[in-house]
Amino acid sequence: MNFRIKLLTCSLCALLSGVAACKSAGSGGGGVTLPGVRGGGSNSAAVISADDKPLDVLTKAMRAQLDAKSYRAHVTTSTADGMTNKMEIEYAAPDSYRMTNEGAGGGAGKGFKVEYVIVGGATYVKMPNAGWVKSPLDARAMINAFRDPKMLDELAKTADVKLVGPDTLDGAPMLVYEYTQNNPMGVKMKSTSKTWLSVADGLPRKTESEGDFNGTKTKTLVTMSDYNSDIKIESPVK
Questions:
Q1: Distance CA 87, CA 84 (A)
Q2: Distance between CA 30 and CA 136 in Å, rounded?
Q3: What is the CA radius of gyration of the chain?
Q4: So what's the pLDDT on residue 168?
Q5: Domain count of the chain?
Q6: CA nearest 19: which of 169, 213, 207?
Q7: Taking the mean position of all CA atoms in its chain, how far away is CA 44?
Q8: Which H or E run includes 221?
Q9: Residue 39 is assigned to a structural domain of this protein
Q10: What is the CATH number of the domain that holds 180?
């Protein structure tokens, strides 16, 4: 597999598995109520505290993220040899995405930029210096696999989750959790991550990861914003 494709897969894994490195805690435990999670309505208050069980908090946070009707994310992945990959992602339920993937470095020093739109079961791609074309690639199937709650449970089997402590992000109170992943989704990768969860709603706002991706050291930063905002994604080809 081309290494840039591997790096893209690594970035997607970091984003779409989010805080998935935790075993399913079922419907009870922790006293945490989050939007979109059984036991809390869509308008219910969501508060987390340092007294809640880390495993329960992270599990419910991931479920709530999966239930969000929309969000925006920025993913930056870098390697020890200077290769970088940046992704800007917008999501709108139930299965529409707009993604911009940019990379540079890796010896030749040449950069690239590729845009994707996934909507209505179709995938569209825009390569550099070219227009939009419909692709035979079923990227939606890959993304939906990452978002499958059953697959999230599989991701979590070897996880070790702990509370790091309180912090602030953009002036808002957060709780920081640390966890490990080993070979998520069959990707040969080991990583240690820290995730910042909003005390106000329990949803993830930032994740920092360091990993070994098939022998290559990587660092990934994911920032999340605009949960449940009005994001419209339409086919770029009429």
A1: 10
A2: 44
A3: 18
A4: 96
A5: 1
A6: 207
A7: 24
A8: strand 216-225
A9: no
A10: 2.50.20.20
Report the predicted TM-score, pTM, of the whole model to 2 decimal places. Answer: 0.77
Give the integer Cα–Cα distance in Å for 50 and 145.
Answer: 32
Q: In the beta sheet, which residues pair with residue 89?
A: 73, 99
What does the DSSP assignment read for 92-116? ETTTEEEEEEEEE-SSS---EEEEE
Give the domain range for residue 78: 3-25+45-225
Q: How much is the pLDDT for 140? A: 66
Here the tokens at position 15 are 């984003």
**Residue 18 burial (CB count, 10 A):** 25
For 44-138, where are the alpha helices, taking DSSP H only?
54-67
**Is 129 part of any domain?**
yes
Q: Is 215 a member of any domain? A: yes
Helix spans in 69-209 (H): 139-147, 149-155
**Residue 172's Cα: distance from chain center in Å?**
20
| Residue written as token pair 């449940």 | 228
- Whether the CA torsion 119, 124, 128, 129 is positive or negative: it is negative
Q: What does the pLDDT look like over 44-75, one tens digit per residue?
A: 344 688 898 888 888 788 888 888 999 999 99
Residue 158: inside a domain: yes
Q: Please return the burial class of 86, using the count of CB atoms within 10 Å of its CB with bins 0-12, 13-18 and 19+.
A: middle
Packing angle of the helix pair 3-16, 139-147 (nearest 10 deg): 40
